């Protein structure tokens, strides 16, 4: 029953019912202050910024993956997607402006680091609501692997990405839109999604990714989220008054929390029929395995 609901929800619209308030979630005003503190570590968009991001993501995944922490599912997906981003960027003419996408990638990762590190340090009022739902759920080990992955992606795409896009700028100096480069990332997602799923199944949670959802539907969901993130970034950039901006931020924050809470409901274990035990045992045995399928950039090491 749960699987059927998840298939129907993700395969058709990706929309979920409104969620209840999240305790200790940050307000838009608090979120604005927190965003101002997120460092732009790649302001010039140098090529080395992506290498630095990959190195940091690899270090984080190594800790989470080797301990079979439920946060490892999103960390592995983020690492492999960023490696795929580098592969795409290094193809001649793939992006119109490599410096812009390099800067975006570096800043985007900083939002993830900040949310996770604030959460781990107990600074809950500084953590965006969608991230609180995702990170708390992973710590409680109450969701399947697919649930942990989707909640992380929701928080990072639906919540973080609009703010990142607005900060790096939606319009190039010549007046053209940055949207084509934004959309090219969708091709990278399409190239990595199948080997990523194979790796997640082989190393972390075999049963938890047996959702019955075709990868084409999952990809369509992510592409739809990224399109909405762009539109929300435009709304942020077009907001002419503090009040107008607050309304946009409320929409972004509450929408991401609603999706997170709905997904958490659909992907929760149902004791005593299911629970995290088999996942833990499987991961303990398999987490150090090499990826079973080559990515476009090759077969990366396990850690």
SSE layout and pairings?
Blueprint lengths: L1 H11 L15 H10 L10 H19 L5 H18 L8 H23 L8 H12 L4 H24 L10 H25 L11 H24 L3 H26 L9 H10 L17
Q: What do these coordinates show?
A:
With 303 residues, this protein is an all-alpha fold. It has one domain. It is 67% helix and 0% strand. The protein contains eleven helices and no strands. The chain has helices spanning 2-12, 28-37, 48-66, 72-89, 98-120, 129-140, 145-168, 179-203, 215-238, 242-267, 277-286. The radius of gyration is 18 Å and the shape is globular. The two termini are 36 Å apart. 43% of the residues are buried.
Mean pLDDT: 91
Annotation, overall tally of beta strands: 0
Question: What is the helix fraction of residues, given as a range?
Answer: 55-70%
State the end-to-end CA separation. Answer: 36 Å
Contiguous runs where pLDDT drops below 50 for at least 5 residues: 1-26
What count of domains describes the coordinates? Answer: 1
- Fraction in beta strands: under 5%
In sequence order, what are the helices and strands, one letter per element? HHHHHHHHHHH
What is the 3D form? globular
C-alpha-based Rg, rounded: 18 Å
Biggest beta-sheet profile: none
Structural class: mainly alpha
Number of helices: 11
């Amino acid at each position: 029953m749960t699987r059927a609901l998840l298939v129907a929800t993700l395969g058709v619209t990706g929309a979920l019912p409104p969620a209840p308030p999240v305790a200790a979630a940050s307000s838009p005003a608090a979120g604005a202050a927190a965003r101002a503190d997120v460092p732009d570590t790649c302001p010039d968009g140098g090529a080395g910024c992506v290498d630095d991001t990959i190195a940091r993501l690899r270090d984080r995944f190594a800790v989470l993956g080797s301990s079979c922490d439920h946060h490892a599912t999103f960390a592995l997906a983020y690492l492999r997607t960023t490696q795929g981003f580098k592969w795409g960027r290094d193809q001649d003419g793939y992006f119109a402006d490599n410096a812009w996408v390099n800067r975006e990638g570096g800043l985007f990762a900083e939002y993830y680091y900040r949310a996770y590190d604030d959460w781990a340090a107990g600074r809950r009022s500084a953590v965006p609501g969608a991230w609180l739902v995702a990170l708390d759920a992973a710590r409680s080990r109450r969701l399947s692997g697919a649930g942990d992955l989707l909640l992380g992606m929701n928080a990072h795409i639906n919540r973080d990405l609009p703010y990142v896009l607005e900060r790096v700028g939606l319009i190039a100096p010549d007046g053209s839109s940055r949207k084509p480069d934004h959309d090219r990332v969708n091709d990278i997602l399409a190239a990595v999604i199948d080997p990523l799923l194979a790796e997640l199944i082989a190393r972390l949670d075999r049963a938890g990714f047996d959702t019955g959802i075709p990868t084409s539907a999952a990809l369509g969901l992510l592409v739809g989220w990224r399109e909405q993130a762009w539109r929300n970034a435009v709304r942020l950039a077009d907001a002419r008054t503090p009040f107008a901006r607050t309304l946009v931020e409320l929409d972004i924050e509450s929408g991401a929390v609603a999706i997170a809470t709905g997904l958490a409901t659909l992907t929760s274990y149902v004791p005593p029929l299911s629970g995290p035990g088999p996942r833990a045992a499987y991961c303990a045995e398999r987490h150090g395995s090499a990826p079973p399928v080559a990515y476009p950039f090759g077969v990366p090491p396990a850690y």
